[in-house]
Design brief:
With 292 residues, this protein is mainly alpha-helical. It has helices at residues 2-32, 39-57, 60-83, 91-113, 140-162, 164-174, 176-181, 186-208, 220-233, 238-258, 264-278; strands at residues 128-131, 134-139.
Length: 292
C-alpha cells in the first residue's frame, strides 16, 4: 500500500509536466488548428537559456524568469515569421514546417551549447519527503512542479474567461472572419496565443529538466507524452489536457513501478493509439463539435 501511494504521488508530479506540454499544444490548436511539433524544440532552447543565466548569475529564479520570457518571445516570433505564411494553406504545409522547425531548433541548440548531457538544478530539495516514518515518494521540488503547472493552468483559465484579451482570443479561435468584423485584431491574437504556448512550454522544460539530463533532443519523449495527454483530454480542452496529463502520469508511473521502466514508452504509445482509435475527440470532449 505504501508503494502504491508513492507511485501515485510521483505520477502526479510527472503528469503535471505532461499537462504543461499538453496545455501548450491545446493553446495553439484552438487558435490555429495547427499541431506544433516544434514545441519540444522550443522548450529545449529556452531551458538552455535558463541554464546559461543560472550559470552566470548563480540564481535559479533569474534563470526561471529568463526561460519564461524567452518562451514568450520565441513563440511570438515563430508565429509571425514562420507560421503565419502557412496558416491558411493546406494542413500538411504546417506539419512539414513545424517538423522542420523542430529540427532547426534542436540543431541550433546543439551548435550553440554542444551535444553533451548537462545537469539542470532544481528549485527546491530533491530529497524525498516523509510523513513520520513513511516515505511519500515525492520531494519538495515535485510539489513545486505540481503547484507551478496548476497555477499556470488556473491563470490561463482566468485569462480566457474573465479578461477582454481572453474574450478576443476565444473569438479569433472560434471564427476569425466574424471576429475581424467585430474589430478584433486576429493576427495579434494568434501571436499572443503562440506566445502563451511558448511560455507554458518553457515552463515545462525548466520543470522537467532536473529529473532528466539536458541535451538537444531531451524533450522529444516528453513531447510525445504531452501530446498523448492532450489527445486523451481532447485537443480543444485545456482542462482535459491537465486531466489527461495527470491520468497518463499516474498510469505510466504504475507501469514503471510494477512492470518495469522499459515498458513505459510502449504503454504511452499504446494509450495514444487506443484513444485515437476509440475516441479521437478525447475522453473529456462532450461532443464532436468544437468547444471554445
Amino acid at each position: 500500500m505504501a508503494e502504491f501511494g508513492e507511485l501515485t504521488l510521483g505520477g502526479i508530479s510527472f503528469g503535471m509536466i505532461y499537462a504543461a506540454i499538453g496545455l501548450a499544444l491545446v493553446l495553439i490548436w484552438r487558435a490555429t488548428r495547427i499541431l506544433n511539433y516544434a514545441q519540444g524544440g522550443m522548450a529545449v532552447l529556452t531551458t538552455y537559456i535558463a541554464l546559461t543565466v543560472i550559470n552566470h548569475t548563480g540564481s535559479y529564479w533569474a534563470g526561471f524568469a529568463a526561460a519564461l520570457a524567452a518562451g514568450l518571445v520565441l513563440g511570438a516570433v515563430i508565429e509571425r515569421l514562420v507560421i503565419r505564411p502557412v496558416e491558411n494553406k493546406p494542413p500538411l504545409n504546417a506539419v512539414i514546417v513545424t517538423i522542420g522547425l523542430l529540427t532547426l531548433l534542436e540543431g541550433l541548440a546543439g551548435i550553440i551549447y554542444g551535444g553533451q548531457f548537462r545537469s539542470f538544478p532544481a528549485a527546491f530539495s530533491i530529497t524525498g519527503l516523509r510523513a513520520g516514518s513513511v516515505a511519500l515518494g515525492i520531494s519538495s521540488n515535485d510539489v513545486f512542479v505540481a503547484v507551478a503547472v496548476l497555477v499556470a493552468a488556473l491563470a490561463l483559465a482566468v485569462v480566457f474567461r474573465y479578461t477582454s484579451a481572453g474574450l478576443r482570443l476565444r473569438a479569433a479561435a472560434f471564427n476569425a472572419q466574424v471576429a475581424r468584423l467585430l474589430g478584433v485584431r486576429v493576427g495579434q491574437m494568434l501571436t499572443l496565443g503562440w506566445a502563451l504556448a511558448g511560455l507554458i512550454g518553457a515552463l515545462a522544460g525548466v520543470l522537467v529538466s532536473p529529473s532528466t539530463f539536458l541535451y538537444p533532443n531531451s524533450m522529444d519523449s516528453i513531447f510525445v507524452l504531452g501530446f498523448t495527454a492532450a489527445v486523451i483530454g481532447g485537443l480543444d480542452s485545456p482542462v482535459g489536457a491537465v486531466a489527461g496529463g495527470l491520468i497518463l502520469g499516474v498510469v505510466l508511473n504504475y507501469v514503471g513501478g510494477y512492470l518495469g521502466a522499459d515498458l513505459v514508452p510502449l504503454f504511452g504509445l499504446a494509450a495514444l493509439t487506443a484513444v485515437l482509435m476509440t475516441r479521437p475527440s478525447g475522453l473529456f470532449a462532450a461532443t464532436s463539435t468544437r468547444q471554445v
